[in-house]
Amino acid sequence: MKGSLVYQDYINLINKKFIITEDYKNTQIQPSSIDLSLSEECYEVKHSFLSYNSKVRNKLNDLAVKKINLNKEFIFRKNKTYIVRLNESLNLQNNLFGHCNPKSSTGRLDIFCRSLVDYAEEYEKIPKNYKGEIFLEITSRSFDIIFRKNNYLNQLRLIDSEHNFLTDRQLINLNKIQKISNQTKKNIKIDNGLKLSVDLSSSKTIAYVAKKDAPILNFSKINFHKRNDYWNTITNNNKKLIIEKNKFYILKSKEKVIIPSNLAGEMIPYDTGIGDFRAHYAGFFDPGFGLSNGSYAVLEVKTNEVPFLLEDGQTIARIKYEKLNKNSNVVYGKQIKSNYQNQGLKLSKHFK
Q1: Looking at residue 24, which CATH number applies to its domain?
Q2: Is the pLDDT of residue 215 over 80?
Q3: Which of 3, 24, 107, 201 has its C-alpha lying 20 to 30 A from 237's C-alpha?
Q4: Are 288 and 261 contacting, i.e. CB atoms less than 8 angstroms apart?
């Protein structure tokens, strides 16, 4: 069946050298995606670019400011842009194609990253039967962050031949049989995917906002950093919140989300019909996310244009559901040590 590949497919592709990597770990492979890792080869660049008419390497010859070796830890300074070659390269066949997204932890740190491949007109897209290297453009926008070789910032989802998205009618019918949200059947909002609204009603913390002058953060250190060094907490303010220009917020959805084990999900990161802001930098939801009671979606929100008033229950994002090419025998959760199952308003795994 056509659709998104599953865990065993990625192992097979590595064994067949369709995915070429130096030294992969089983923990890189997720239920419907694979984590990609930084190599030692890094460049600070003058500005972002796409390489639609050449190889990425040819562009780097002109645009690189300096070369950096990530075998040693290196501080990526705020608002500077770096290009890192990934350890993984591709030798795709049989009409496989894909796209990339930041991992959840990357998005929750306001690290703007997007993949680049040779002769591509768009970021994050892996063309059908692509053969070549993958590079990652990285701009940390809230914190100075230490990276090194083998850190995982983004992930790749591969698709067999064509996407197999569920229509709204199919989603409504699915929800009657197998719930995809904790909303009642009467109140569920499905329109071009499952619509999610923001929760500003908690009697405790409703949001975190990144501090401007935080210490350097070490990306390799998990459950290490003190939350209060990096984040201010925002408490309930009449169920409203002004998203201020160039500030970075962590919020959560009012609804719980469930991704059945035969489907994958992706959050739509920006929708001008919803508002002039970007919601959710990281987009992939693996099969099994939220089983069985549902899990809140954490929303990373920023506006670069004008301040924006959010109110409790306001629609902020959508999730599209896609069929897998087969049922996955591995699902998101404790079995594979997933970090964000059954989450609430949760910062990245780097904080105590």
Answers
A1: 2.70.40.10
A2: yes
A3: 107
A4: yes
Residue 91 lies in domain: 3-160
Evaluate whether residue 22 is within a structural domain: yes
Most confident of 117-121, 176-180, 235-239: 117-121
Per-residue pLDDT at 334 exceeds 60: no
Same domain, 181 and 322: yes
Smallest CA-to-CA distance from 210 within 135, 130, 140 is with 140
Structure confidence by residue, pLDDT tens digits, 18-54: 999 988 888 999 999 999 999 999 999 999 999 999 9
Q: 44 in a domain, yes or no?
A: yes
**165/144 Cα distance (integer angstroms):** 38
Q: Give which of 215, 168, 225 is closest to 349, Cα–Cα.
A: 225
- CA 321 → CA 84, 170, 194, 269, 316, distances in Å? 31, 10, 8, 14, 17
Do 143 and 60 fall within a single domain?
yes
Burial 24-58 (b: 16+ CB within 10 A, else e): beeebbbbbbbbbbbbebbbbbeeebbbeeeebee
